[in-house]
């Protein structure tokens, strides 16, 4: 499955299923609730949840945390290739030059901002 965001997982469905299992177990064991969708989209939050889960010393929660940690490690191994791709895209965007003047851009932006323009 494709990456959800620049910080997200490629293994989106697997990370989601592990996170839902961790949600239920963390609620029972530690009384903590996590945001599953944010965990799947943000690697730093996922690392925080893994650390928090390992501190509870629950065997089932530790197993899920290690599975999620394994996914994070796999994604970090792929990260250099993705960063090169994003750098190439940025350089292509910088080369684009608009043919419109500043006044034309201003008129295009402002005309639809006022109710009087709709009459």
Explain what the structure shows:
The chain has 119 residues and is an all-alpha fold. It has one domain (12-118). Helix content is 69%, strand content 0%. The protein has five helices and no strands. It has helices at residues 12-29, 36-41, 43-55, 59-94, 102-110. Helix 3 runs antiparallel to helix 4 (59-94). Mean pLDDT is 75; it is low at 1-5.
Task: Give the secondary structure arrangement, pairings included.
Elements: H1 12-29, H2 36-41, H3 43-55, H4 59-94, H5 102-110
The coarse silhouette is elongated
Mean pLDDT: 75
Number of domains: 1
> Structural class, judged by helices and strands?
mainly alpha
Q: Give the number of helices.
A: 5
DSSP, total strands: 0
Percent range for β-strand residues: under 5%
Order of helices and strands: HHHHH
Biggest sheet, in brief? none
Please mark out the parts with pLDDT under 50 across 5 or more consecutive residues, or reply none: 1-5
Gyration radius, rounded = 22 Å
How far is it from the N-terminal to the C-terminal residue, by CA? 48 Å
Task: List key phrases describing it.
mainly alpha, single chain, 5 helices, 119 residues, elongated
State the gist of this model.
With 119 residues, this protein is mostly helical. It has five helices and no strands. The chain has helices at residues 12-29, 36-41, 43-55, 59-94, 102-110.
